[in-house]
Amino acid sequence: MKKSLGAKTIVYPAPVFIVGTYDKAGKPNVMNVAWGGLCCSSPPAVAVSVRKATYTYGNIVERKAFTVNIPSEVHVKEADYFGIASGGKEDKLSVTGLTPVKSDLVDAPYIKEFPLVLECKLIHTIEIGLHTQFIGEIMDVKAEESVLGENGALDIEKVHPVLYAPENRAYYGVGQYLGKAFFIGKQMKSH
After folding, report:
1. For the chain, how big is the Rg over CA atoms in Å?
2. How far, in Å, CA of 175 to CA of 182, rounded?
3. Rounded to an integer, what distance in angstroms lies between the CA atom of residue 128 and that of residue 52?
4. Stretch (H or E) spanning 110
5. What is the CATH number of domain 14-188?
6. Residue 100: cis peptide before it, omega within 30 degrees of 0
7. For range 165-184, the mean pLDDT
8. Residue 173 gets which letter from DSSP?
9. What is the mean pLDDT of the segment spanning 50-67?
10. Is the dihedral of CA 136, 56, 126, 47 positive or negative?
11. What's the rounded Cα separation, in Å, for the pair 153 and 80?
């Protein structure tokens, strides 16, 4: 029997996205955003939701671009810090020693040390309530060669992405391999 938990912001797992933006003066800023995910395949697009009170909100509105940086487990402390400090008060990249890189495709920086980056131009803004959802068309995905498998595709076990559990406010790593998507369920289909 299922127990009602009420209307809460729970989904397991939630991704840990580090959103990169430039402010009006061109200073790079990053923010930890747990409310986000892929939202369209054509055009390829990702959605992130942030509160208007954040420094990142104003930056996305101003620059019409952002990056989504996927931290590996070795950068979990930095990723957490990016969610508890304000870019309006601190230079988060300087504090952590991580390197901002200017995208050549969109008006936003990405983090050199993170294994996976999505460069996005803003295509839609949706006012939801406390959060505003920004939908960015993915102009390019950049990945460190060290996280690619033999066939050139991303290997999740090499990326070591950080996952977030909203209910207990905790970070986790990726678990075990369970099977090939769009394949293991075929045995369930009737012949």
Report:
1. 17
2. 19
3. 11
4. strand 109-111
5. 2.30.110.10
6. no
7. 89
8. -
9. 97
10. positive
11. 28
As a whole number of angstroms, the distance between CA 98 and CA 85 comes to 15
Q: pLDDT of 104-130, one tens digit each? A: 999 999 999 999 999 999 999 999 999
For the record, the structure tokens of 174 come out as 């990726």
Tokens 């050549």 sit at which residue?
104
Give the burial string for 158-167 (b: 16+ CB within 10 Å, else e). ebbbbbbeee
Q: What is the pTM of this model?
A: 0.93
The alpha carbon of 140 is separated from its chain's Cα centroid by a whole number of angstroms, namely 14
pLDDT exceeds 80 at position 191: no
167, pLDDT greater than 90? no
Q: Give the integer Cα–Cα distance in Å for 101 and 190.
A: 51
3-state SS class at 191 = coil
Counting residues of the chain whose pLDDT is more than 70, the rounded percentage is 99
Query: Token pair for residue 107?
Result: 């008006």
